[in-house]
Amino acid sequence: MRQSPIKLSINSSIIRPLPRIFFGNYDVRLKRPLKLANKGYTVEMAIPQTRNGQKPFIAGGLLRGQYVAEGVHLHWGSPASGGSEHMVNKRRYDAEMHIVHRNARYTNIDEALNYSDGVAVLGIMFKIVRIPDRIYPGLKKIYAELPNLVEYHSEAKLPGSITLGQLLGDLNTRDFYTYRGSLTTPECNEAVTWTVFAKPLPVAMTDVVKLWKLQDSDGNLIRNNYRVLQRRNNRPVFYRTPESQ
Ligand SMILES: [Zn+2]
User: Fold this and answer.
1) Measured in angstroms, how far is the CA atom of residue 72 from the centroid of ligand 1?
2) For residue 133, what pLDDT is reported?
3) Where is the Alpha-carbonic anhydrase domain positioned along the sequence (predicted)?
4) Structural domain span for residue 204
5) Rounded to the nearest whole angstrom, what is the distance from the C-alpha of residue 4 to the centroid of ligand 1?
């Protein structure tokens, strides 16, 4: 009844003056080590505590209370097609980053997945541009490690440190779609409040090519690791407008 991903468009959304997403500790450096891992179906980074001994968290939008950041991973396509999970205004973007958060009232992600309000995921679209005109220091460090993550179960540590906010850079976080859905990987738990930002971040082709070279446990290339579109089943999708706050 509430599976993800789905098609998103302004025309099919309820335009509503929702609060902006509040980013807590997103500007505080994360403790080291920052480990990236090839999971066989994606590349993932677990999110450690920040240097002030807390964790990054979000609030606002459709969320009630605070949601603590747990992990970041990516979905991508192939040289023949884009690979975002959500389609935005009929467009499948080149890649989609997910920052997974769990409701602070639950102890860990496994517990949170049992509740309809257990998890909040931020979806960030990536669009290939010929010559990126901005540098994203956090993402740049991740892209730089991808060649060390080609094999299944390989791990790499990010050099130096980053803030979680450095994965968003100058992304417009005021305009977003939000709806109640699910994880897009098994067990597809219907526990996720999705917040998908309407505008993409630019990415260089050379960096997306690195994703296309990653391998699964059989040595096959991990490509098109997005789930097919799911039925909306009359669910409301909300779109936040810039005028609203
Ligand atoms: Zn995902």
Assistant:
1) 8
2) 81
3) 1-241
4) 7-225+233-244
5) 10
